[in-house]
Write a structure and sequence with these properties.
Elements (H helix, E strand, L loop, with lengths): L1 H24 L4 H16 L10 H12 L3 H13 L2 H5 L11 H13 L6
């Protein structure tokens, strides 16, 4: 049982960290704006904020639908919050300059989590 628990911990760290990064990067929308975005994400894509880690593209699709070309600046905020500084991704062999999408940033976070570099 101890072994199963240890295996699950990095994934929990990844999920919770991603959820916090998404929430923080969207703070500028205000509480009402975030609630509206998350309502739309759930209603249109069947995804709650806690489930974004399972299919990050659903969040970016939702942002595209709601914000059109403005989605790119929102995606940049998400990427910057996940990566914070280039060292975080470089530690797992990914150059910050190669992270062009939210999905890329999520994969970097997932690799960091697998190494045990992600803490809540």
């Amino acid at each position: 049982m101890g072994r199963m628990s240890n295996l699950a911990m990095p994934e929990m760290g990844f999920e919770k960290t991603l959820e916090k990064c998404v929430d923080k990067s969207l703070d500028f929308l205000g509480d009402s704006g975030k609630k509206a975005l998350f309502w739309h994400l759930k209603a249109e894509y069947g995804v709650t904020p806690e489930q974004i880690c399972k299919d990050p593209s659903k969040l970016t699709n939702c942002l595209k639908k709601l914000f059109g070309p403005g989605e790119k600046s929102l995606e940049a905020r998400l990427i910057n919050e996940i990566c914070k500084d280039g060292k975080r991704c470089k530690d797992v062999g990914i150059e910050r300059s190669s992270i062009a999408t939210f999905n890329d940033a999520v994969n970097c976070l997932k690799k960091r989590s697998a190494r045990g570099d992600v803490r809540n």
